[in-house]
Design goal:
It is built from 9 helices and no strands. It is 75% helix and 0% strand.
Length: 182
């Protein structure tokens, strides 16, 4: 089992997919989630291969059967394949306190892309531009998804990383509401 060769295959497969997506879910998003996951893992621990592989593949959450077929082709043992599949399903509706540590880390790494100040702006623009939502719907949906993702954060590290952003984002929405309702 050559993990480096396997990771190259995962990155190549993921890159093709990211390059077909909108600006908010492109290769830059993939890289940011991988970097976030590695930074969380430095403190939380976990299997670094699973964390990096899962972070690269996380965006396939809506194409879970397709990514599962790909995972089955990897030259890794069946236990790792099962774990990697679970990690890729790291959405709020699937993540629990009983999830693998690696799933929690990848979930939190992706959540940062919604919950940080950068992520908030990215989500609003994606809602308006890519999902063609009217402005107020784009804003309301951004607030809702932030609440959904924040409620399910699983690592102390991610919460610490986002602590200041949570305050800024809350103040921003309070100020926004004041002027929007004016």
């Amino acid at each position: 089992m050559d993990y480096e060769e396997c990771m190259e295959k995962i990155i190549e497969y993921s890159t093709k997919f990211y390059n077909s997506l909108d600006f908010a879910h492109n290769l830059e998003h993939g890289r940011k989630v991988v970097n976030n996951a590695k930074n969380i893992a430095k403190i939380e621990g976990g299997d670094l291969f699973l964390i990096e592989a899962g972070a690269w593949l996380h965006q396939f959450h809506d194409k879970i059967d397709e990514v599962n077929s790909f995972i089955k082709t990897l030259d890794i043992n069946d236990e790792l394949k099962i774990k990697l599949y679970e990690i890729v399903k790291c959405r709020p509706e699937y993540i629990t306190d009983d999830s693998l540590l690696e799933s929690k880390i990848v979930y939190d790494a992706d959540a940062i892309e919604v919950l940080s100040t950068y992520g908030m702006i990215r989500e609003i623009i994606c809602n308006a531009k890519c999902r063609n939502k009217e402005w107020e719907k784009a804003v309301d949906d951004t607030i809702a998804v932030q609440k959904r993702f924040q409620k399910k954060l699983k690592t102390k590290t991610a919460n610490t990383m986002l602590e200041n952003d949570f305050k800024i984002v809350q103040e921003f929405w309070e100020s926004y509401k004041k002027w929007a309702d004016n």
